[in-house]
Automatic annotation (TrEMBL):
Residues 130-251 form the Outer membrane lipoprotein BamD-like domain. Belongs to the CpoB family. It comes from Massilia hydrophila. NCBIfam families: tol_pal_ybgF. Residues 70-97 form a coiled coil. This is Cell division coordinator CpoB. Residues 1-24 form the signal peptide.
Length: 251
């Protein structure tokens, strides 16, 4: 039997009822009322019978529909699980990429952020690039590459004149010139230490280097002057002790 929807059932009942109602208009009122009542009773009986049949048939149909819906639901769940697994893998890869990105970004930021360092016993904030540049230049001094060191140290003090390493770089620049035999440049470089970086711990050594450079230039007058100033201003320094010994040899 074909399954009828409630709306379809109402349409059939109405189609059966309307012609009879039209016929009732041709009869006397009492007869019409009676005919309508009889018709309504028949329609109700037909409706109950049809409904009963439909419900009986629907029980089986509902079971089949439920089975079909269950199968479709399970298929949909399997499909969604597959999508969830794909999305979970994508999220996992995205999270891993983000972690790597944040790690790289953090490393880059750290390269730009000042780091706490101790320079000549004093705490100071130093940029990582700044520290690397100074250490690379100083390594050239240690390796005996004084020409390369002079170039690197010159570049350093030009780029980082306010660095915590600037006084040391300037001092080692003077030493590089001294080692190269360019005593005039050595004196000029060390005088920057004694004036621009007057509070640096390297000042006594810079003054000693100035005196020694003048002596090698055969300028005894300025050599004595520089060494005497060193002894006078920094008498307790190791540089002052060396200066006294050199003063004794100067004529």
């Amino acid at each position: 039997m074909m399954k009828l929807s409630p709306s379809r059932l109402a349409t059939l009942v109405l189609a059966a009822w309307l012609p009879l109602q039209a016929q009732a208009g041709l009869l006397e009122d009492s007869e019409a009322r009676k005919a309508i009542l009889d018709l309504r009773a028949k329609v109700d009986a037909i409706t109950r019978d049809l409904t009963s049949r439909l419900e009986s048939k629907s029980d089986k149909t509902v079971q089949l529909d439920m089975l079909n819906q269950h199968e479709q639901t399970m298929q949909e769940i399997a499909r969604l699980r597959g999508q969830i697994e794909v999305l979970a893998n994508q999220i996992s890869r995205a999270q891993e990429s983000q972690k790597q990105l944040y790690a790289d970004l953090d490393a880059r930021i750290r390269k730009l952020e000042p780091q706490q360092e101790t320079v000549d016993g004093q705490a100071a904030e130093v940029l990582p690039a700044e520290k690397t540049a100074y250490e690379s230049a100083y390594a050239l001094i240690q390796a005996g590459d004084y020409k390369g060191a002079a170039t690197a140290l010159q570049d350093f003090v030009r780029r980082y004149p306010d660095s915590a390493y600037a006084a040391n770089a300037q001092y080692w620049l003077g030493n590089a010139y001294y080692a190269l035999g360019d005593y005039k440049k050595a004196i000029a470089a060390q005088e920057v230490v004694t004036t621009t970086y007057a509070s640096s711990a390297k000042v006594p050594d810079a003054m000693l280097n100035i005196g020694s450079s003048y002596a090698l230039l055969k300028d005894s007058k300025n050599a004595k002057k520089a060494l005497q100033q060193l002894v006078s201003k920094y008498p307790a320094s190791s540089a002052a002790k060396t200066a006294k010994d050199r003063l004794a040899t100067l004529k």
